Amino acid sequence: MAYIDVKHVSKIYGSGEQEVRANDDINFEIKKGELTIIVGASGAGKSTLLNILGGMDTPTKGDVIINGKIIANDSPKQLTTYRRLSVGFVFQFYNLIPNLTALENVELASQISPDSLDVPEVMK
After folding, report:
1. Which residues of the chain have pLDDT under 50?
2. Do residues 59 and 13 make contact, with C-beta atoms less than 8 angstroms apart?
């Protein structure tokens, strides 16, 4: 059984002649523990797909099923809970708070996790 199941997912921006299909009818499965790499040219839709899988964006069409639960139509509140409890992100531009130290940034993130790791140990 797939841990991540993407079924006919499309992300479409604009309409008519201005329509841009960032993702168009994507289908794949990833088993739990399986290493998957997403590659493609700049502008191919990799970040859009990762944002959809991570609950930061929603597809225009299709289903995203994570561990048996469809998240494609979740409310913003449900997606916030999904991101908080189920997904880890390493952002391209880090998204650190510039006036905090590295330790303070990690401590801040650990405050919203129900079972965070020991911050000083993580920093080692």
Report:
1. none
2. no
